[in-house]
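agent> fetching stored inputs for the adenosine-5'-triphosphate docking request
agent> found them:
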Amino acid sequence: MIPADHPRYRSLVTRERLADCARKGVVAMEGLTAHGRGEAFDYLLGERTTTSALLAEKTAAAMLMAAHHPVISVNGNTAALASREIAALQKASGALVEVNLFHRTEERVAMIEKILTRAGADVFSGEAERLLPLSHDRAWCRRQGMFSADVILVPLEDGDRCGALAGMGKQVIAIDLNPLSRTAQRATLTIVDELTRALPEITRACTGLSETDRTRLLSTADNHYLLSEAIREITLRLSHALD
Ligand code: ATP
Ligand code: MG
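agent> prediction call returned; pasting C-alpha cells
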C-alpha cells in the first residue's frame, strides 16, 4: 500500500502498475528497465512539460490532423500506462491504433489489444505480416495499418524501427524522454516529455488549434531545435542543481 502523501506517490503508483502488468505478461521485463531510463531523464527535466515539449505536442497534433492515414503504434508499456489516453487521442485525431511489439508473442498482442479495447480504443487487428525492413519482431505489422501510414506516432519507440519507418518515407512522431536516443534523433518530430503528460496535450491540440495555427506549426517544425531545447533545459537544471 503506497501512502497518498508520499512525496514520490505518482512515480511509485506508476511503478506498481508496471510491475503488475509485467507479472501478467502485458509489459515485458525489459520494459521495466526502459521505464527506469525514462524516469531518470524525467527527473533531469523536472518532471514537467517544458515549453519546447508543448510546442512539439501541438506540432504533433497538426501533423496527425493533416495526415491521410495516421497510425498510433502501441507497445506494452504504452498500453499499461496510457490506454485511456490513447483511446482519447484516437477519437480526437481519427488515427488508427495498432499494436507493435519488440518482445512479440501472439498472446501478448492479444492481451494488449484487449486492454486498449476495454479503454475505449478501436483497435486495428487481424493478420500481421513481416513487412518492415528489420531483423527483429518489430517488423511485424498490418499492410493496411502502419505499413501504409503516412504519419505514425510511436510512443516509447526503438531506434531501429524509428529509422526504418523514416526510411520508408513516413513522418515519424516519437515520444521519448531521452533527447539523445537514436529514436529522438531519427524521428521527424520528437516530443521530449512523459507519455501520460504528452498524450492529453496532443489530444487537446487536435481539437483546440485553428487551421492557421496548424499551418504555421507545420511550416516551422524543426526537430533539431526541439532536441537542443530539451538538452538546454536539462543542462540548465543541472547547472543550478545545488543553488
Ligand atoms: P534507442 O533505441 O532509441 O536508441 P534505447 O535503446 O535507449 O533507445 P529503448 O529501450 O529502445 O531505449 O526505449 C525506451 C525509451 O523510452 C527510452 O529512451 C526512455 O527514455 C523512453 N521512455 C520510457 N518510459 C517513458 C515514458 N513513460 N514517457 C516517455 N518516454 C519514456
Ligand atoms: Mg532501443
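agent> quick read of the result: The chain has one domain: 51-239.
agent> awaiting further instructions
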